[in-house]
Amino acid sequence: MAEKDKRFSNNINIKNKSASYEFEFLEKFVAGIVLSGTEIKSIREGKVNLQDAYCVFQESELWITNLHISPYKSGTHYNHEAKRIRKLLLKRKELQKLKKKMEEKGLAIVPVRMFISERGFAKLEIALAKGKKLHDKRQSIKDKDVKRELDRMKY
């Protein structure tokens, strides 16, 4: 029996580090994502970029745009498009809650991290977020510096 291919991993945890710098998270949700073809193989190889991705509502469905999943290198002509719009799967009540909050306030839905669930499905953690002002960004930089100094003192 052949050994399991070592390029693929179920321990995927891809984070959007710039999102926590740019936004203040108000509430987080875990959503499934509709994938096609070889996208799951590229995700298991860790070839995903969440930096420029954001979520939008089209009618009553939530979609993620600008999520870059690199084409699978061993794929054939059935390989997927890297930056296509993908549908997110949430419960109806969660969708209604998100849509209501987005309409009444100037909030955004931002992807925070992508991971593989215990059952082997790709999941996306999204957050209802409010944009930070310049002074808020300075405060988060200051907090990071203080934390770094405290960690250095411990060792």
UniProtKB/TrEMBL annotation:
Keywords linked to the UniProt accession: Cytoplasm, RNA-binding
Gene3D superfamilies noted in UniProt: 2.40.280.10
Entry's localization field: Cytoplasm
Cited SUPFAM superfamilies: Small protein B (SmpB)
InterPro entries the record matches: SmpB, SsrA-bd_prot, SsrA-bd_prot_CS
Functional description taken from the UniProt entry: Required for rescue of stalled ribosomes mediated by trans-translation. Binds to transfer-messenger RNA (tmRNA), required for stable association of tmRNA with ribosomes. tmRNA and SmpB together mimic tRNA shape, replacing the anticodon stem-loop with SmpB. tmRNA is encoded by the ssrA gene; the 2 termini fold to resemble tRNA(Ala) and it encodes a 'tag peptide', a short internal open reading frame. During trans-translation Ala-aminoacylated tmRNA acts like a tRNA, entering the A-site of stalled ribosomes, displacing the stalled mRNA.
Family: Belongs to the SmpB family.
Protein name (database record): SsrA-binding protein
